[in-house]
């Protein structure tokens, strides 16, 4: 059941990240969920490194969305979407 909740929260976080990021992101709901989960993981790792979170403590909603936005920005730049 933990994985189901992780996928649902990841979908919500990924959808929020896609909504606040300018431009068009062509990805389905599965990739949106993966984006949200990865954003949460990145936020948790960075948060533990700077001592915002204790080891094993999950990242919060805002940090997860920020992590997903950063990953989406990096993905867009690697894909070449930032060219004019």
User: Low-confidence runs (pLDDT<50, min 5 residues)?
Assistant: none
Distance linking N and C termini: 45 Å
Strand tally, please? 0
Number of domains: 1
Q: Biggest sheet, in brief?
A: none
The secondary-structure class comes to mainly alpha
- The percent of residues in helical segments reads over 70%
Global shape: globular
User: What would you report as the Rg, rounded to the nearest angstrom?
Assistant: 13 Å
- Sketch the topology as an H/E string, one letter per element: HHH
Mean pLDDT level: 87
Percent of residues in beta strands? under 5%
Tally of helical runs: 3
Describe this structure in words.
- This protein is an all-alpha fold and 84 residues long.
- The chain has one domain (2-79).
- It contains 3 helices and no strands.
- It has helices spanning 2-20, 29-49, 61-79.
- Helix 1 (2-20) crosses helix 2 (29-49), helix 1 packs across helix 3 and helix 2 packs across helix 3 (61-79).
- The mean pLDDT is 87.
List the helices and strands and how they pair.
Elements: H1 2-20, H2 29-49, H3 61-79
Helix pairs in contact: 1-2, 1-3, 2-3
Please outline what is shown here:
This protein has 84 residues and is an all-alpha fold. It has one domain (2-79).
What attributes does this structure have?
single chain; 84 residues; mainly alpha; 3 helices; 70% helix; globular
């Amino acid at each position: 059941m933990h994985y189901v909740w992780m996928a649902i929260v990841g979908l919500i976080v990924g959808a929020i990240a896609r909504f606040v990021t300018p431009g068009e992101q062509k990805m389905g709901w599965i990739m949106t969920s993966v984006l949200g989960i990865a954003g949460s993981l990145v936020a948790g790792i960075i948060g533990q490194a700077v001592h915002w979170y204790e080891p094993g403590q999950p990242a919060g909603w805002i940090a997860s969305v920020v992590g997903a936005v950063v990953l989406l920005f990096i993905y867009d730049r690697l894909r070449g979407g930032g060219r004019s």
